[in-house]
């Protein structure tokens, strides 16, 4: 029975929960962290950790996509981002960093991103970026918006993309509009030979519809991070992440029964600030986690500590801000006072107890402390709601 509350005469709303509202319950058994597995496999592609990067230029360049791949995750290039529009992206991003350092207002920062994204997409640039990742021997993934998926996908596949991410703030299987030929995801996916991850969604019904399109994975959420994403402020749309993940996991289970065994992966995008949040996403039923801001402070990141999502550059209705706090207060090595590198951020060691370093080492420890041997088992762990 859904937990409905009355918000006024004749109108009820469903009670929903953020990741902060829940806690993981330990079981009667514990394990050594050396004998648990954090491996994740989608289609034919296996990864050592359930990490998919949020496709933002703030954290994903060809070099960082390679680094994430070598560390066991999946780096996703934004095929409509700066690496597709500018031959010298570090210089382009330098204008943003310079503006932050001289104290520019948030509106100016958004204006800089909008101007940078006003440059046309050049297929040769994104093709070269994909080539670099492919030649490094890691899985190649790229993100396109639903609006440009049909236009850009043939070139991306020719360049060597092995996994396609069709992602927008809110993605549906059915779009009604004035376009002559709006994207039909079911037809689009069926014509491809590569797995497609699609989203974001925030409810059971939409997750089920996307699963029926043939998607290999469904993204839950829209990258919500406090102080960065503002979809709820701009559009009034949002579902607390714990509830959204649980609902999508329920759709996955029902779709598995409906199809007689076709499993669609749930990828949680948003609400993760520290390693405990990451563990809670898996406990709620996610197969993998799409991380953005938690990775932004690694020394290798192209944004140099800044973070934003692709929605920041929308030409008329931006729905993301540029986070500058991480630039001013980076995660650092206490001895050297320098930003930690990506490997340390993911696997430690950590010298602080704030949960921002050793993200996947902490996930491994959470599995061990609750007695579960792998991620699928951990999705069954008990949960409580804070009073």
Give a verbal description of the structure.
It is a single chain. The chain is α/β, with parallel strands linked by helices. It has a single domain (22-385), classed as Aldolase class I (TIM Barrel, Alpha-Beta Barrel), CATH 3.20.20.70. The chain is built from 14 helices and 14 strands. The chain has helices at 62-70, 89-101, 106-117, 123-135, 149-159, 185-190, 204-211, 231-235, 241-259, 275-283, 325-328, 342-347, 359-370, 375-378, and strands at residues 4-8, 11-14, 22-25, 40-42, 45-47, 51-53, 76-78, 141-144, 163-167, 196-201, 217-224, 265-270, 288-291, 382-385. The strands form four sheets. The protein has an eight-stranded parallel β-sheet with strand order 6-13-12-11-10-9-8-7. It has a two-stranded antiparallel ribbon with strand order 1-2. Helix 10 links the parallel strand 12 and strand 13 (288-291).
Assigned CATH superfamily: Aldolase class I
Briefly note the structural class of the backbone. alpha/beta
* Name of the CATH architecture: Alpha-Beta Barrel
**Main sheet: strand order:** 6-13-12-11-10-9-8-7
First-last Cα distance? 19 Å
Helix coverage percent of residues? 25-40%
Radius of gyration: 20 Å
Assign the CATH class. Answer: Alpha Beta
Helix segment tally: 14
Number of domains: 1
Q: What about the largest sheet?
A: 8 strands, parallel
- At the fold tier of CATH, the topology name is TIM Barrel
Q: What is the approximate shape? A: globular
Number of DSSP E strands: 14
Uncertain spans, ≥5 residues at pLDDT below 50?
none
Q: Provide the residue-averaged pLDDT.
A: 89
What's the helix-strand series? Answer: EEEEEEHEHHHEHEHEHEHHEHEHHHHE
């Amino acid at each position: 029975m859904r937990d409905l509350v009355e918000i006024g005469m004749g109108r009820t709303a469903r009670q929903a929960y953020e990741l902060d509202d829940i806690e993981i319950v330990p079981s009667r058994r514990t394990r050594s962290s050396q004998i648990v597995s954090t491996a994740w496999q989608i289609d034919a592609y296996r990864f050592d950790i359930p990490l998919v990067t949020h496709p933002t230029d703030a954290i994903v360049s060809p070099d960082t996509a390679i680094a994430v791949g070598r560390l066991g995750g999946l780096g996703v290039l934004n095929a409509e981002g700066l690496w597709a529009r500018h031959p010298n992206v570090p210089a382009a991003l330098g204008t943003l960093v310079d503006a932050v350092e001289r104290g520019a207002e948030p509106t100016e920062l958004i204006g800089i991103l909008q101007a940078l994204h006003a440059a046309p997409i050049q297929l040769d640039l994104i093709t070269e970026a994909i080539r670099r990742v492919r030649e490094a021997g890691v899985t190649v993934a790229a993100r396109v918006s639903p609006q440009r998926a049909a236009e850009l996908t043939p070139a991306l596949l020719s360049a060597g993309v092995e996994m396609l991410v069709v992602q927008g703030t809110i993605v549906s299987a059915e779009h009604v509009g004035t376009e002559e030929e709006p994207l039909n995801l079911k037809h689009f996916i069926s014509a491809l030979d590569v797995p497609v991850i699609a989203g974001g969604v925030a409810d059971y019904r939409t997750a089920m519809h996307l699963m029926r399109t043939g998607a290999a994975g469904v993204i839950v959420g829209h990258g919500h991070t406090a102080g960065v994403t503002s979809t709820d402020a701009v559009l009034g749309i949002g579902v607390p992440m714990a509830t959204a993940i649980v609902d999508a996991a329920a759709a996955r289970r029902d779709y598995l029964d409906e199809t007689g065994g076709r499993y669609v992966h749930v990828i949680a995008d948003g609400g993760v600030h520290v390693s405990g949040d990451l563990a809670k996403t898996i406990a709620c039923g996610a197969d993998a986690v799409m991380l953005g801001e938690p990775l932004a402070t690694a020394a290798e990141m192209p944004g140099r500590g800044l973070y934003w999502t692709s929605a920041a550059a929308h030409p008329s209705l931006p729905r993301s801000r540029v986070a500058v706090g991480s630039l001013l207060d980076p995660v650092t090595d206490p001895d050297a006072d320098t930003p930690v590198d990506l490997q340390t951020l993911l696997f430690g060691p950590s010298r602080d107890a704030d949960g921002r370093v050793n993200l996947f080492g902490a996930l491994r420890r959470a599995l061990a402390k609750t007695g579960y041997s792998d991620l699928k088992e951990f999705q069954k762990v008990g949960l409580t709601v804070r009073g």
